[in-house]
Amino acid sequence: MAIRFASFETYKGWLADKATGKTSVGNIFVAGLGAGTSEAIAVVCPMEVVKIRLQAQQHSLVDPLETPRYRNAAHAVYTIVREEGLSTLYRGVSLTALRQATNQGANFTAYQELKKLAHRYQPDLVELPSYQHMIIGLISGAMGPFSNAPIDTIKTRLQKTTWQPEVTAFQRISIVAKDMWRREGVRSFYKGITPRVLRVAPGQAIVFAVYERVRTIIEKISVSPSDDHYTE
Q1: What is the mean pLDDT of the chain?
Q2: How many helices (H) and strands (E) does the chain have?
Q3: Contacts of residue 38, Cβ cutoff 8 Å, sequence gap at least 6
Q4: For residue 196, which of 155, 162, 131, 152 has the smallest C-alpha distance?
Q5: Which candidate, 100, 102, 110, 147, places its Cα nearest to that of 25?
Q6: Torsion angle (degrees, nearest 10) of CA 211, 213, 217, 219
Q7: CB neighbours of 18 closer than 8 A, spacing ≥ 6?
Q8: Considering only CA atoms, which of 92, 6, 3, 100 is closest in space to residue 52?
Q9: Which residue spans within the chain are E strands per DSSP?
Q10: pLDDT of residue 108
Q11: pLDDT of residue 149
């Protein structure tokens, strides 16, 4: 979250109009794409590889004393890097970056536009109440999963597969997608969309409400250049 919002605000500032200080809708979307790509490369892809490996590992119910392949996240990272190399943690990074980029592009754009709409209908409000930020965050948070469900499904299945040195990344993606289409049809690309929306949207509602509250507090605190002390 920290990487996402910090990078979004940075890119948004870079893309803002120098004369007005405002950022257009198109540039908001571009800033969201950049934020999603940044978080995907920095932390999301490696952690998702570890999470999927932990969830997919087989553990015998007949013999509960059997030691699982990965004991915890740290052990999973160590084992994966030792046996398969560091690059394995970035398996599917292109799809992860594409998913996160489209997700945050849609998320931030929808949030900013819905926020403007709320201000337009409530011109007397300087700041929207937290419950409205939560509602807007809930709606915008659902946009991402619907916009990139096929990408996320292919990425998840790709990260569960074993590494084949002679197969390129594009070939692996193509093989997984064709296999899904042949075996399960178009519906397979949207498997898990309901629980994903139910997980992501409420989380975004809380995140945006907290983000707006913290941002308001920080903006109220300024350093006075004359006496060099904090005023509120």
Answers
A1: 86
A2: 8, 2
A3: 3, 4, 7
A4: 152
A5: 110
A6: 60
A7: none
A8: 92
A9: 222-223, 230-231
A10: 95
A11: 87
Q: Is 119 exposed, middle or buried (0-12, 13-18, 19+ CB in 10 A)?
A: middle
- Give me the residue label for tokens 């015998």: 60
Residue 162 carries which DSSP code? P
Name the stretches of the chain with pLDDT < 50.
Answer: 60-61, 223-224, 226-232
Query: Measuring CA to CA, which residue among 196, 147, 138, 153 is closest to residue 32?
Result: 147
Provide the residue type at 13 as one letter: G
Q: Which helix (H) or strand (E) holds 111?
A: helix 93-121
Distance CA 49, CA 169 (A): 15
Q: Measure Cα distances from 2 to 8, 53, 106, 107, 216 in Å.
A: 10, 25, 18, 16, 17
Judge if pTM exceeds 0.70.
yes
Tokens of 63: 């013999």
pLDDT in the model for residue 223: 45
What are the percentages of helix, strand and coil residues in the chain, rounded to 5?
A: 75, 0, 25
Q: How far apart are CA 58 and CA 70, in angstroms?
A: 10
